C-alpha cells in the first residue's frame, strides 16, 4: 500500500524554488515543488506545503538556514536538493558534501520524515565549456545515490532521465529548467511517491524544437554568463534579496 503524507517541506536552491517556471497567475516562480504539491493535495485533501528554497544558495548555507526550520515544522515529507551551485565553483569538496548530506538525511529520518533526494539533470550538453565539470556532477550524484541507499530515502534520478537531453526543457540561460522541464521533474517526483501525475505534463513538446543555440556564444555569455561572473567576483548571490516564497506549512487547497 502506498504511503500517505500530510505535510511537505521543500528545501534547496533555484531548482526547488522554481526558477525558470514563472507562475501564470502571479509574479513569482512556480516550479516542480508547487506542481507536485497541487497534485498531492488532490490525493490527500489536508495536504500542507512549505518551500524554503532560495536561488543561488550553496550547500552549507542551505543546510545552515533551512534544515532546522524545516524540522521544526514536523513534516512527514521533505525534499532536499543542493550542491549544484557548489560544483560550479573553485574549491568544490565532494567528500565534505557527502559527509554533511549523510548527516542531513539522518536528522530528517530521525524526525520521522520521509526524504526525497535528487540526482541533478545533465546540464553539460547545453552550456559551452561545461563538459569539463561533468565529473563533479557525476561525483555529486554518486554521493546522493549512496546516501539514499544507506538511509532508505526516495531517490529521483534526473541524471538518468534522458528527457532532459532535450534543450526544449531548459531556459534561455541553459542552466535552469523552464516550465516544461519543471513539469517533467514534477512528473518524476509524483511517480516516485505514488502520486498520480498530471497527464498534461507529458504532452508532446512543441513541433519545432527551440535551437540548442538560440543565441550565439557571445550573446549568451553577455546576457547570462557575465552577470554570474560579476556576482562571483563581488561576493554577491542572485538570492541575496530573496526570501522563501512559502516559509510555513499551509494547506494547498
Using the coordinates shown, work out and report the CATH topology: Rossmann fold
CATH superfamily: SGNH hydrolase
Number of strands: 6
Terminal Cα span: 25 Å
Q: So what's the overall shape?
A: globular
CATH class: Alpha Beta
Largest sheet: 6 strands, mixed
Mean pLDDT: 88
User: How many distinct helices?
Assistant: 8
Pfam families: Lipase_GDSL_2
Organism: Glycomyces sambucus
InterPro entries: GDSL_Rv0518-like, SGNH_hydro, SGNH_hydro_sf
Protein name: Lysophospholipase L1
Question: Could you characterize what this model shows?
Answer:
- InterPro entries: GDSL_Rv0518-like (IPR053140), SGNH_hydro (IPR013830), SGNH_hydro_sf (IPR036514).
- This is Lysophospholipase L1.
- Residues 242-253 have a biased composition (Basic and acidic residues).
- The protein has 253 residues and is an alpha/beta fold.
- It has a single domain (7-251), classed as SGNH hydrolase (Rossmann fold, 3-Layer(aba) Sandwich), CATH 3.40.50.1110.
- The chain is built from eight helices and six strands, in the order βααβαβααβαβααβ.
- The chain has helices spanning 14-17, 32-43, 59-72, 84-87, 94-110, 134-151, 179-192, 217-234, and strands at 7-12, 48-51, 77-81, 114-119, 154-157, 246-251.
- Strands 5-4-3-1-2-6 form a six-stranded mixed β-sheet, with helices on both faces.
- It is globular and about 45 Å long.
Amino acid at each position: 500500500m502506498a504511503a500517505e503524507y500530510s505535510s511537505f517541506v521543500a528545501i534547496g536552491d533555484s531548482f526547488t524554488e522554481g526558477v525558470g517556471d514563472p507562475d501564470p497567475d502571479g509574479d513569482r516562480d512556480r516550479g516542480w515543488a508547487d506542481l507536485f504539491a497541487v497534485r498531492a493535495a488532490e490525493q490527500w485533501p489536508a495536504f500542507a506545503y512549505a518551500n524554503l528554497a532560495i536561488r543561488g544558495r550553496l550547500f552549507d548555507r542551505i543546510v545552515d538556514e533551512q534544515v532546522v526550520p524545516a524540522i521544526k515544522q514536523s513534516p512527514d515529507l521533505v525534499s532536499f536538493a543542493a550542491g549544484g551551485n557548489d560544483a560550479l565553483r573553485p574549491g568544490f569538496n565532494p567528500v565534505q558534501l557527502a559527509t554533511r548530506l549523510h548527516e542531513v538525511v539522518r536528522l530528517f529520518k530521525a524526525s520521522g520524515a520521509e526524504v526525497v533526494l535528487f540526482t541533478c539533470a545533465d546540464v553539460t550538453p547545453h552550456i559551452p565549456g561545461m563538459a569539463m565539470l561533468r565529473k563533479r556532477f557525476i561525483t555529486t550524484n554518486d554521493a546522493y545515490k549512496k546516501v539514499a541507499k544507506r538511509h532508505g530515502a526516495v531517490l529521483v534520478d534526473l541524471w538518468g532521465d534522458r528527457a532532459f537531453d532535450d534543450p526544449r526543457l531548459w531556459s534561455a540561460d541553459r542552466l535552469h529548467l523552464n516550465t516544461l522541464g519543471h513539469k517533467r521533474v514534477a512528473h518524476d517526483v509524483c511517480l516516485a511517491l505514488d502520486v498520480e501525475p498530471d497527464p498534461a505534463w507529458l504532452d508532446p513538446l512543441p513541433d519545432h524544437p527551440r535551437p540548442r543555440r538560440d543565441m550565439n556564444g557571445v550573446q549568451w555569455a553577455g546576457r547570462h554568463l557575465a552577470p554570474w561572473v560579476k556576482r562571483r567576483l563581488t561576493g554577491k548571490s542572485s538570492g541575496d534579496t530573496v526570501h522563501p516564497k512559502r516559509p510555513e506549512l499551509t494547506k494547498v487547497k
